[in-house]
Design a protein that fits this description.
Elements lengths: L12 H19 L7 H8 L3 H7 L3 H26 L2 H26 L7 H24 L9 H14 L5 H16 L4
């Protein structure tokens, strides 16, 4: 190997599993209202040592941010899978219902997110960029199929769903928001 060049190792599979388990454990704790859970308790529940947690996440903020970004990544990857396996309008419908689940997750981890030292501005700005690009692609595909009107603004659909989640946060709001997906899709269809 030439001097000055370093070879990057792939993460070990046990390391990847530990990271995923730590994220899942932290998400469950935050979702249960344990925004202030000590990091050593997250490590204990995940069945790893505190050193393993710190190898993956340098501090509490890094862990909280990683939980949020993992959910965002999962949502973005789902759009790719749906576009590959479903007709355009059905892919859009399914993804919008997953977006409702994403909003629900965001609400349950909100207390932890609100504890981030630097705030959530940059994190949320990144998520808006990713979400906009994702729904833009799904809408473009549905418009190209001729099933969705070309004058539909993708962000309008997301704002409608986000608005329902902010307005109706009581029990069952997710089911109501998912019914709204069907109404939004019906209203977005071409006249034929």
């Amino acid at each position: 190997m030439e001097e000055g060049h370093t070879r990057r190792r792939k993460p070990r599979s046990d390391g990847q599993k530990n990271r995923a388990h730590l994220l899942q454990t932290a998400k469950a704790a935050f979702g249960a209202g344990e925004a202030d859970i000590p990091l050593d308790e997250i490590a204990r529940r995940a069945g790893v040592g505190i050193g393993t947690l710190y190898r993956h996440f340098s501090n509490r903020d890094a862990l909280i941010e990683a939980v949020y970004r993992e959910e965002l990544s999962r949502l973005s990857l789902a759009a790719t899978d749906l576009a590959r396996t479903s007709p355009p309008v059905e892919a859009l419908r399914a993804w919008m219902k997953l977006f409702v689940d994403y909003i629900a997750t965001k609400q349950v981890i909100a207390p932890a997110l609100n504890s981030l030292i630097g705030g959530t501005g940059a994190l949320y700005a990144d998520s808006r960029t990713i979400l906009k690009a994702t729904i833009d692609q799904l809408i473009a595909r549905a418009v190209q199929s001729g099933e969705i009107s070309p004058d539909i603004e993708p962000l309008d659909l997301l704002c409608a769903l986000a608005g329902v989640s902010n307005y109706a946060t009581g029990p069952g709001w997710e089911a109501s928001a998912k019914r709204l997906v069907d109404i939004l899709i019906a209203g977005s269809r071409t006249g034929g």
